[in-house]
Amino acid sequence: MNTLSEENYLKAIFRLSQKSDEKITPTAIAEALGNNAASVVDMIRKMTDKELIEYDKKKGVRLTQQGLKDSILIVRKHRLWEVFLLEKLGFHWDEIHDIAEELEHVSNASLADRLDKFLGFPEYDPHGDPIPKANGKLPKTFTVSLADVKTGASCKVAAVRDTSSSFLQYLVKLGIGIGTPIQVLERIAFDQSLVIKINEQDQTTVSQRFSESILIS
Amino acid sequence: MNTLSEENYLKAIFRLSQKSDEKITPTAIAEALGNNAASVVDMIRKMTDKELIEYDKKKGVRLTQQGLKDSILIVRKHRLWEVFLLEKLGFHWDEIHDIAEELEHVSNASLADRLDKFLGFPEYDPHGDPIPKANGKLPKTFTVSLADVKTGASCKVAAVRDTSSSFLQYLVKLGIGIGTPIQVLERIAFDQSLVIKINEQDQTTVSQRFSESILIS
DNA sequence: AAATAAAATTAGGTATACCTAATTTTATTT
DNA sequence: AAATAAAATTAGGTATACCTAATTTTATTT
Fold first, then answer.
1. Interface subset of A 43-82, CB within 8 angstroms of B
2. Where does A34-89 have alpha helices with state H?
3. Could you tell me the domains of chain B?
4. Is the entire prediction scored with pTM above 0.70?
5. In chain B, which residues from 111 to 140 place their CB closer than 7 Å to nucleic acid strand C?
6. How far is the CA of A63 from the C1' of D25 (A)?
């Protein structure tokens, strides 16, 4: 079995591999985990020995088959627990990520599958992230952000790229959730800020960083 | 906040204090946790500095007010999660203890209370152990064991003192669960084995260790 | 291509929570 | 009370997963 730290490394590496096709460097992992690069180099050696990852200076860090399987299970548990916390226990959107961060490490062979069944086999978590199925398959992942929407066009919020509570609380304040319709009214040439209409009602201006953090369908 | 190890020490000390009035020695804690006594002495110093416990060679280890509060919350979470695992996820009696052992350490201020509400404020966990209320109060704890029942008398199983899967699987095999009526037919003078009638049907002989592990009402 | 900057790595160190072996203290037996 | 046994403690050590500072390697700029 994997230690808590190993699980966090696996998760970080998995996320980096999902985010882009760029090679995964020790520095990137260090940044993702808030660790020192020297620590990451230590851990890369341990995890390579354990055959969870492969490391080649040219190709960067890659998950082995076992590492990928383990990562997906952690992500699956994380996202299922998020659904549970929101739907069953009534936690708020911005609280569930940190709790799921602990719950995802609870290890039991049938826990994820039982939880999945209990929750009615949800496809997406409350942030719109796809929940890996028991066989490891991922439902469609959203990749187009609000920043990519043409001026004048409309879309619906499908997922959020940022799970920080400051971002989520901002969304709540604006009345934006998964499924909320948004129309792009104007694009400010200076800094790519967007003037948007939320839910066919309120009009606001949001920054580029904001619009890049929202995935749409 | 307390570390994982500290939480396990707190829980062990709390359990020992519940089990009997005997003073809690480093050796007793070492045995409860499966640690070396030298390690326990180390940890006693740390936890004393943190004001979670007090240690006096004459009086043994005692929980401070803070230590008691923390211990009760851990026990509360453990037992609530056991109810969840059995009732909501359909785990078996003998599987839930080990999983709850991990879940109990998930820390969030309102998690226990929300889980409690979701489960309908259960008073006892699936092993018959009382679930501490949000205010720290414990429902009535069962203390009379099957070994104390007079020959010829009847009783109902209220709780089990042993949560090992070997014991619980034995109970399942015998058709005994919480609430099962048991009549003591005969007491073997030689080794205090009991001949019992289960659920007014099957008759079996059980050892003294067995009958001491069952609490009745 | 040389100079410079950035990334990766090595060397050596830390806190946590354990351990064994040796010693000291306390309790029990004779 | 002395002898013995048990418990508690100290001294010194380990693996894990981090760290900083120094060095080496690789990439980028001039």
1. none
2. 37-49, 65-83
3. 4-63 (1.10.10.10), 146-216 (2.30.30.90)
4. yes
5. none
6. 24
